[in-house]
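hey
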């Protein structure tokens, strides 16, 4: 594959950050603004299982047995998804990779089709502020739009601004008792990715303690510089 062909391959962005950093919210905003497709590990697995793809069936059998889906299966599902027509403008990976081993495997997978990581963006936050952020967040069960008790409430209480749904949901583990454990797991396993992508020359950092709109503008600038 020529250099010109490689440059025209769909872009791949990664959002890094601990639980509550706003990765999902910002990924959806980038999707709406630039036509990039948000790909979260959970959604990928559920869609592949529902579609009955080869990798999806493999994941289904593992999950049915109560096991953890292996990196190989996740990568196979991601490879299937990246081949779909709607990803041709590019994708935003939200929740994968989580370790440097996964990052290396992802690089190898992308290289097969002449793709690469255009930017790995770290949403930097203050751990102490995460308790408030996480305990107050909820989503629309219909479309997945995210909200927060303090920072982002629907225009009409209980009604989604995006799809007018009223099925608002909170994750049972979004409480102060579990936040510390999740942050510790992030720092132990996922934070080393910051060093990995810094060494690769693709790391970008954003102070994610500001307003959602300001963070979105900074992310938009990075997208324009690296993708558009």
């Amino acid at each position: 594959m020529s250099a010109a062909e490689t440059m025209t391959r769909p872009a791949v962005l990664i959002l890094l950050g601990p639980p509550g950093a706003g990765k999902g919210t910002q990924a959806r905003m980038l999707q709406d603004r630039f036509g990039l497709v948000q790909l979260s590990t959970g959604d990928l697995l559920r869609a592949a299982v529902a579609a009955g793809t080869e990798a999806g069936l493999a994941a289904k059998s593992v999950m049915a047995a109560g096991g953890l889906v292996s990196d190989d299966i996740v990568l196979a599902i991601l490879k299937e998804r990246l081949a779909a027509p709607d990803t041709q403008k590019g994708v935003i990976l939200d929740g994968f990779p989580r370790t440097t081993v996964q990052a290396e495997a992802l690089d190898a997978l992308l290289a097969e089709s002449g793709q690469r990581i255009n930017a790995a963006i770290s949403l930097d936050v203050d751990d102490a502020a995460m308790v408030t952020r996480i305990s107050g967040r909820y989503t629309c069960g219909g479309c997945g739009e995210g909200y927060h008790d303090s920072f982002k409430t629907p225009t009409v209480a209980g009604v989604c601004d995006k799809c007018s749904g009223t099925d608002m949901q909170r994750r049972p583990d979004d409480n102060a008792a579990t936040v510390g454990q999740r942050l510790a797991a992030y720092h132990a396993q996922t934070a080393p990715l910051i060093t990995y992508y810094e060494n690769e020359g693709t790391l970008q950092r954003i102070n994610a303690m500001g307003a959602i709109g300001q963070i979105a503008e900074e992310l938009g600038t990075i997208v324009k510089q690296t993708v558009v």
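Strands lie at 12-16, 37-40, 91-94, 119-124, 137-140, 146-148, 168-169, 203-207. The chain is about 50% helix and 15% strand.
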